[in-house]
Amino acid sequence: MSTTEAPDLVTTIGLEVHVELKTSTKMFCGCPVGFGGEPNTRVCPVCLGHPGTLPTMNEKAVEYTTKIAMALGCDIAPRSIFHRKNYFYPDMPKNYQISQYDLPVGERGSLEVEVDGEFYTVGITRAHLEEDTGKSIHVGGGGRIHDADYSLEDFNRAGTPLVEIVSEPDITSPAIARAYATELRAILEYLGVSDVRMEEGSMRVDANISVAPPGERGKKVEIKNMNSLRSVYRALEYEERRQREVLRAGGTVTQSTRHWDEKAAKTKELRTKEEAFDYRYFPEPDLVPLEPAVEWLRQLREEQPELPIERAKRYERKLGLTPYDAGVLRSTKALGDLFEEALASAKKADAKQVSNWVTNDLMSVLAAVPEGTKNPPLTGSNLAELVDMVAEGALSKSQGQQVLTKMVETGLGAREIAEESGIKQVSDEGALEEAIDAALAANPDVAERLRSGDNKPFGFLMGEVMKATKGQGNPKVVSGLIRRKLIHPD
Amino acid sequence: MQLWERTAADVASLIASKEVSAAEVTESCISRTNEVEGDVLSYLTLTPEAARAKAAEVDSAVAAGDPLGPLAGVPMALKDIICTQGTRTTAASKILDNYIPPYSATVAERLYAAGGTMLGKTNLDEFAMGSSTENSAYQITKNPWDLERVPGGSSGGSASAVAAGQAPFSIGTDTGGSIRQPAALCGVVGLKPTYGLVPRYGLIAFASSLDQAGPITRDVRDAAIVLQVIAGQDPRDSTSLPSPVPDYVGALAKGIDGLRIGVVKEISGEGVDPAVQARFREAVQLLEKLGAKIGEVSLSTFGFGIDIYYLIAPAEASSNLARFDGVRYGLRVDGPDVATMNSLTRAAGFGPEVKRRIMLGTYSLSSGYYDAYYLKAQKARTLIARDFARAYEEFDLLVSPTAPTTAFKLGEKTQDPLTMYLSDICTVPSSLAGAAAISVPAGLSSDDGLPVGIQFMARPMDETTMLSAAYAFEQELGPLPKPPLWSTS
Q: B397 and B448, same structural domain?
């Protein structure tokens, strides 16, 4: 929970999220969309803003934006238009950005988020489509544009389709803000419309936060440069505390834009609102209005995948999973899909067992794999094979964990790995009894103590037997045999 | 008759029938150009070598019996605001002094594909902003009828090249009259197509919602032939219209008989020079003689055309011209930081009229003024289109003089921008309505012996009716005398 010591002050947060769409080409030209690469290699006269060039609409970008707006429950505009946002910046080739203004693709949606078992509804003001800028590198001076020795421009990103999703100022704590951004990221991932990599900038979160006594309006502070969900939370928590302290000390908060410094764990003032721009918006005369056909919209609605929150609810209701497990399984689309595939092909294991393997064992293995939960390197049927082998007793739980690690490393099937590595479980009572007898013979006092009701050497004896069977003894069978022999002889 | 004196249609058929070679035609136009260029200064860039190479290609195609394009071997001049790959394109601005486009405009591509041989790029008012071509950053183009006078603008170089015999046809662009007014002042034909008929891809934008490229020719038939080549949808221009392109040349013979033609009161009387009015009235009588039903129509919004135009066009221009910042191409004047570099570059690169319009446009889009200026002008613009639509319930075509005066003296209006702006009073309404219009020579003024043009205005996409009426009128009137410069060879 956020700062709580001043209940007389209310925090108000609104988030502005920019998402790069993963279309194959740019918004208004045929250049490929991508990340990184040699500077200025994915450019053409159109995205370099050469004189005489004109934008042409990327239909896929319109489709993705519409899907996002629908998933957020927005009203889809029967007619939406593009505007020019005019301002000079060297990484913006035309010195205006083609964006949307008063008629965006989607308006008036909402998103439900959960924090510590409480549900909150955050209103979505709008979702609109625009083009991204290039990237500037300011060399020398303070690394800022006005005191640099020179600036380098890379236009590879210029013209990448970008969707801006603006929330209502409905968010009352940094934790809810983080939950909102997390949920939004999950939805975008489910829709398959963006890479949503905050560290690469394909999802960028800016926040507006103000603190004021209830019923009053605080001064809005905009925070930029939050490059992970964690920094969204940290920056807002810092800023909330800072503003509270200013107000409690009798001061006033300055309306401004502040930069989150991750290392210093502080926000720093960039500019105050007096320097606000006049963007001189006007309708883009080079593009025609978007007027989506009713039939096309109906088709998009039909194609809309199950969203993360719906999936979690289904897992809880239909499969009886705990809210925690359902929450882990729905956190990425790929993880949920993997779970469902495994469950469908498992012959013995039930939903709870499969879920446990994913939420506990697989999650800890995947923690070491980059983007592991987005692209788990194993198939559902392989996972089912493993879970079944353990359920059948062919592998012990810890052997199963061993095999799972190898499955993720190699991409091979569970049975294949178990056979090649000679991992198997011995459940044959005769063989195991021999091992127990041998261990007891070597340690005569153990038998004595167990028989006399002292349970302490039980673990030791188990260990000796497992050692003797090279870890393959079925622990259930071994412990059963020991009990039968020494503790509760019939 | 010299080859350079011939029309595009004549030249194309002479080449196709092997009576002359494309090389001969090209050489004739090149030597004619060299002969008079020092007097008229039509061109900013001459490309004789490229023209010769293209002519040689056409001649091999003729020899091989390959199919020929409708303009095979026809020399042409393109306004220097049309991007031509590998050939410097300046928009007559110092800010693009060194600019060589990496691609060609759709219009240029279509003309090359039809066999046209480009002789060079013609002078204009900087970024097409002006009505006399005196706003060029490079040179003052002269009117072939009187070298002391302007050729009109902004496509002044394109009009003078055709009138002086340098090229059988040229391409201009028209935002508020920039094809029609110089055509009228130089005694040639100029056609502004319906907005969206000819793709804008590769035209350096002045006012995006108004700009259209179109032909400047010596007769109406040539205008139809060239329009046929350049018209039609282009996937690179979202505002280009999907309608099929009609047969313009085939429609020429339809004539005027029975057409209802309205004389627009607001732009044909008051404000128009009496000698121009007189010649225009005779032209209307000629139309009546040809069987047209003539009526007068009052379209009150036309009186506001110039006001509306000078709110909308500069607003769009202020945004369109923002890209000239010294970062990626064109002029750069270095400064201590990026913003100063931008300012110094633009201060040095743009001329006074361009700066004036950027200021006007920036102002009318500014927060607090947008509703009162830009938005109100857009609303008024729809009223003009509505007035047109109302008039077309009664008439098939509307007519007016093309320009309120004949060609004026060099320097006569440069000190008074508002007077200069009024040169477009007759042409601006159809630009604002996105409709088609053509200027055709209507004879010489009895006052100064200079050409007067009549403007035919049509419904959007009704170029065929407009061309057939203009053609019949031209045939009945007979050829205009040639400008004095014509006889110098």
A: yes
Q: Say whether B203 and A145 touch across the interface (CB within 8 A).
A: no
**B102 to A45: CB separation less than 8 angstroms, yes or no:** yes
* Chain B residues within an 8 Å CB radius of A146: 337-339
- Residue A390, both tokens: 């353990």
- pLDDT for the residue numbered A2: 47
CB distance B452 to B406 below 8 Å? yes
Do B100 and B175 share a structural domain?
yes
Residues of chain A positioned with their CB less than 8 A from the CB of B203: 52
Six token digits for residue A72: 């957020």
Strand order in the sheet with A282-283: A96-99, A83-86, A282-283
Q: What is the mean pLDDT of residues B355-359?
A: 97
In the three-class reduction of DSSP (H, G, I as helix; E, B as strand; rest coil), residue B56 is classed as helix
Which residues of chain B make contact with A144, given a CB cutoff of 8 A? none
CA-nearest residue to A51 within chain B is: B204
Residue B39's CATH number: 3.90.1300.10
| Pairing outcome for strands A203-212 and A161-167 | unpaired
Name the domain boundary from B382, B398, B424: B382
| pLDDT lower than 50: segments of chain A | 1-4, 6
CB contact under 8 A, B238 and A148: no
Distance CA B61, CA B74 (A): 14
Cα dihedral B362, B367, B369, B372, rounded to 10, equals: 120
* CB of B366 less than 8 A from some CB of A: yes
Q: What is the pLDDT of residues B130-168, one digit of tens each?
A: 999 999 999 999 999 999 999 999 999 999 999 999 999
Report CB contact under 8 Å: B101, A45. Answer: yes
Q: How many CB pairs under 8 A join A and B?
A: 109
Identify whether residues B170 and B140 lie together within a single domain.
yes
- Percentage of chain A lying above the pLDDT 70 cut: 97
Do B457 and B356 lie in one domain? The reply is no
Structure-block tokens of residue A467: 């050692």
Cβ-nearest to B83 among A52, A281, A287: A52
User: Whole-number mean pLDDT of chain B?
Assistant: 97
Active site residues of B: 79, 154, 178
Residues spanned by the domain of B309 = 303-382
A66 CA to chain B: closest CA distance, Å?
20
Looking at the fold, whether B94 and B20 belong to one and the same domain comes out as yes
Give A229-242 pLDDT, tens digit per residue: 999 999 999 999 99
Which of A53, A56, A94 lies nearest to residue B235, judging by beta carbons? A56
Facing residue for A278 by CB, picked from B237, B324, B367: B367
Does the pLDDT at position B62 exceed 60? yes
Does one domain contain both B52 and B149? Answer: yes
Question: Using an 8 Å Cβ cutoff, are A391 and A356 in contact?
Answer: no
Q: Using CA atoms, how far apart are residues B330 and B182, in angstroms rounded to an integer?
A: 28
Residue A50 with chain B: CB contacts under 8 Å: 83, 101-103, 328-329
In chain B, the number of structural domains is 2
Q: Which of B364, B382, B400 marks a domain boundary?
A: B382
> Which residues of B are less than 8 Å from A84 in CB distance?
319
Distance from B457 to chain A by nearest Cα, in Å? 23
B349 in the same domain as B337: yes
DSSP A184-238: HHHHHHHHT-----GGGTSEEEEEEEEEESTTS-PPPEEEEEE-SHHHHHHHHHH
Q: Which two tokens stand for residue A1?
A: 């929970």
Q: Does B336 touch chain A (CB under 8 A)?
A: no
DSSP bridge partners of B85? none
Cα–Cα distances in angstroms (integers) from residue A342 to residues A156, A310, A335, A339, A421, in the given order: 41, 20, 11, 5, 23
What global pTM score does this model have? Answer: 0.90
Residue in the structure block whose two tokens are 């968010």: A171
Same domain, B292 and B318: no
